[in-house]
Amino acid sequence: MAEDLVLDTAIRDWVLIPLSVVMVLIGILRYFVSKLMLSSQLPDPKIVKEGQIIVRARNLRAAANFIPPKSFRSRRVYFSNEENGLLFVPKGQAQNPQAQMFSDPNMAMDMMKKNLSMIIPQTLTFAWVNFFFSGFVAAKIPFPLTQRFRSMLQNGIDLSTVDVSYVSSRSWYFLNLFGLRGLFSLILGEENATDDTQRMMQMSGFGFDPSKNLGAEKDGLDIVQHEWALPKFEHRAEAVLKKLIK
Amino acid sequence: MVSKTEETQLNRLENQVDNGGGGAWDYLCLVRKLKVRRSEKVFKYGLSILNDPKKRSALGPEEWTLYEQVAIAAMDCQCLDVTKDCIKVLQKKFPESKRVGRLNGMLLEAKGSWAEAEKAYSSLLEDNSLDQVIHKRRVAMAKAQGNISKAIELLNKYLEIFMADHDAWRELADIYVSLQMYKQAAFCYEELILSQPTVPLYHLAYADVLYTLGGLENLQTAKKYYASTIDLTGGKNTRALFGICLCTSAIAQVSKGRNKEDKESPELQSLAATALEKDYKQRAADKLGLLTSALRSLKI
After folding, report:
1. Rg (alpha carbons) of chain B, rounded to whole number
2. For the segment B137-192, what is each residue's pLDDT rounded down to a tens digit?
3. Percent of chain B with pLDDT over 70
4. Cβ(B193)–Cβ(A63) below 8 Å
5. Per residue in A198-232, is it b (16+ CB within 10 Å) or e — as a string?
6. A62 contact residues in B (CB cutoff 8 A)
């Protein structure tokens, strides 16, 4: 079962390394293209205001014990009362974020651009890999795998007796796709457009949902029990002074 | 707020540059990062870098940020010709820039032509209604013209949108205190304490305002906040120590004849008095007599 296939070093020279180099170069190219296509997006006043409200509500929750109970209560009412509380979002109005995003033409364009700049290079590279680098074993994965992975990793290799650890170049492509993120953040600095995996994760949990944030903050605020920490401070001040005087 | 380490670093660089030891560019970068207001030094050293073509080209793209920084410093020192030159250079390089438009507005403001500056700012705001700096410049202009009520109105409108901006709350608190609107000032200080609960400055200011408002409840709350200031500053804040003594005697006066809630107050007051005396002995021994007589009169 575990006969070791000896892989030609030419595979390493002509498949693995060129593939990695090409992916790095394409990543850098995409970074510069994205910089060129950067459109300055005017921030939406409503979203800015909501962001600030959330920060303020969060501060209120975090430091609630530092202000007198009356002030805390008045602020809590200001935020979460039923009529015009800042955090209160009546159920019907909770905007469907998807609809909101598509109705705003600028945002839709931006998203399209970002998606395109991600999809097209990926598709092209994948097609290129499949066309040129298929039909042979490219690398050996150092740990053993189950037979389930055979269809995924050994796509061009039509022998069913080859150990699943021997993979085709398609899997090397995927490995690079997800693995070069660290390299890019070294070369290009933190915020680079090649962060596909992050963007993919963002797309799946769709969009900035402000109404949910507000609701969450309101609930958090309602839960807070105000316990005024200041009386403790008098004792502590005494202790401090006693130590100082000695 | 600038932390202690940053402050020492800044002072060290300043001394170094003052004594001719180079490092002017690092100093300017640090000033810009910390947003401190050292306009004279920035003006002197920034201008010397800009006037030297070799040093200027060594900066690369940071040159334009330096122009902006020197322009603002020059306006602060009222050297408006230098400002005009800097802005001209920036305008040639970035013709349609909003940042340069903002500098132009500030120049008009520095010259004192309020109406034109107001027009410039409003037109910039039309393009981008969420530019925080321009809103704040309008408030500053209203304040400089002496129109405090307009400043308050503008600042309140600004805070309706940008309510997490603690510098704005601080400014508003200052304005209210200057107008003796202490209840509103107390509200602003509460906001500041909420956003930065470990900064003793805000506790102290809040306690001062509460003490000024008077009334038994406020005095007791003020005493608590003086105590928290003492705790946060390790007992070194003279004003808080005085505050404790004054508060305790004021409370005693107000609640004369009622049930005194002396839980731990006598100790705190005497401790504060002792700490004050020790402090004065160390630092201002000749004023110790004044202190002891003042403290004695309080304990009545």
Report:
1. 25
2. 889 888 888 889 999 999 998 988 888 888 899 999 999 999 999 999 999 998 89
3. 96
4. yes
5. eeeeeeeeeeebbbebbbebbeebeeeeeebbbee
6. 194, 197
User: CB of A48 within 8 A of CB of A210?
Assistant: no
Copy the structure tokens of residue B132.
């925080």
**C-alpha span between B129 and B99 (Å, rounded):** 14
Contact B228 A230 (CB under 8 A): yes
> Cα–Cα distance between A225 and A187 in angstroms, integer?
48
Nearest CA distance, A243 vs chain B (angstrom): 9
Query: Six-digit token pair at A84?
Result: 């015009």
Task: Say how many CB pairs under 8 Å bridge A and B.
Answer: 100
Q: Provide the shortest C-alpha distance from residue B162 to chain A (in Å).
A: 6
pLDDT in tens, B271-293: 888 888 888 888 888 888 888 88
Which residues lie below 8 Å from residue A229, measured CB to CB, with a gap of 6+?
A65, A66
Nearest to B198 by CA among A44, A84, A66, A212: A66
Q: Is B96 left (phi over 0), alpha (psi -120 to 50) or beta?
A: alpha
Total Cβ atoms within 10 A of residue A108: 12
Closest CA to A35 of A151, A192, A171: A192
Distance of alpha carbon B88 from its chain centroid, rounded? 31
Nearest chain A residue (CA) to B271: A241
Residue type at A13 in one-letter notation:
D
Q: Which helix (H) or strand (E) holds A167?
A: strand A166-167
The residue to which tokens 């009412």 are assigned? A77
Helix (H, G, I), strand (E, B), or coil: what is residue A140? Answer: strand
What are the two backbone dihedrals, phi and then psi, of residue A90, each rounded to the nearest 5 degrees?
Answer: -60, 145
d(CA A127, CA B285): 86
State the greatest distance between any 2 C-alpha atoms of chain B, in Å, as a whole number. 79
Residue B167's Cβ-side half-sphere holds a number of Cα atoms within 13 Å equal to 9
Q: How far apart are CA B50 and CA B45, in angstroms?
A: 9
Which among A52, A64, A236 has the least Cβ separation from residue B231?
Answer: A236
- ipTM beyond cut 0.90: no
Encoding tokens for residue A65? 């014990």
Amino acid identity of B7? E
Distance CA A224, CA A76 (A): 10
